[in-house]
Amino acid sequence: MFISALTMDDLNDEIVDRVLFAGLQDTGEKADCILVLGSKKACAYRVPAAVKAYQGNRCAKMIMCGGKVRDFPEGSMSESRRMRLCAESLGVKSEDILVDEHSLNTVENVQQALVLLQRNFGLHQIHSVLLVTTSYHMRRSLCIAQYLFPKHIHVIPCPADDTNTRRDNWMNNPEGRNRALGEIKKIIASVENGLFPDFAI
After folding, report:
1. d(CA 23, CA 54)
2. d(Cα 172, Cα 164) in Å, to the nearest integer?
3. DSSP run (H or E) holding 115
4. How many separate domains does the chain show?
5. In the predicted model, what is the mean pLDDT of the chain?
6. Do the domain assignments include residue 201?
7. Predicted confidence band at 131 (pLDDT cuts at 50, 70, 90)?
8. Helix, strand or coil for residue 25?
9. Residues 183 and 136 sit within 8 Å (Cβ to Cβ)
10. Which long-range contacts does 74-80 make (Cβ < 8 Å, 24+ apart)?
């Protein structure tokens, strides 16, 4: 079945699992750079996953994405700036972190990451990136990155589990189920709008 053929009536637990989670496990591969997508809760889940990869010598540099300004306990700042502070507090060297403070959504996260990769390294020098986002958000993020990145750059998924929308528990609580179904709606809409190509599940 292709994404374009899905309706909300098709979304039983098995279909949701196939769309959002199947085949997206972390392989442990090394990459040239870590790309961490922005979120108001990125410091709870995404940043620690990125730092673990960094400290495991899988990548030497990371990009924090997210220009949305929010009120955090540390004060008003962009998501990416807070993500940087969080990564530094966990032991990442300041000089190993690039910050995007312009993007406002997932597509722009990827676009601004491309700009930073080009300016700092040259895209022709980049052969792989480790994509870090929440597990249920990975499919759409990976599809966007694979579509927008040059074909020579291998995008490797590095999903970060949150509390309620893990592969093993999204179906057991209303918050997880609502997020999962809402994310599939976004995937279907993205295919319908031509944001990335249709694909089979």
Report:
1. 23
2. 8
3. helix 106-120
4. 1
5. 97
6. no
7. very high
8. coil
9. yes
10. 79/38, 79/39, 79/40, 79/42, 80/38
Strand partners, 160: 134
CATH no. for residue 38?
3.40.50.620
Alpha-carbon dihedral angle through residues 193, 195, 197, 198, given to the nearest 10 degrees: -40
Which amino acid belongs to residue 52? K
Q: Which CA distances in Å does 165 have to 37, 44, 172, 195?
A: 17, 14, 9, 24
Measured CA to CA, the distance from residue 70 to residue 82 in angstroms comes to: 10
Q: For residue 138, name the pLDDT band (cuts at 50, 70, 90).
A: very high
Residue 16: per-residue pLDDT: 97
Positive or negative CA dihedral for 201, 19, 103, 48?
Answer: negative
CB burial of residue 83 (10 Å; 0-12, 13-18, 19+): buried
The boundaries of the domain holding residue 124 are 3-192
In a domain, 199, yes or no: no
Residues 191 and 30: their CA atoms lie apart, in Å, by: 30
Q: Tokens for 4, please give them.
A: 């374009």
Q: With a threshold of 0.70, does the pTM exceed it?
A: yes
Q: Are 137 and 114 in contact (CB under 8 A)?
A: no
Q: Is residue 152 domain-resident?
A: yes
Please report, for residues 77, 78, 79, the alpha-carbon distance to residue 74 in angstroms, rounded to integers and kept in the order given: 8, 11, 12
**Would residue 198 count as lying in a domain?**
no
Instruction: Give the span between the Cα atoms of 50 and 68, in whole angstroms.
Output: 20
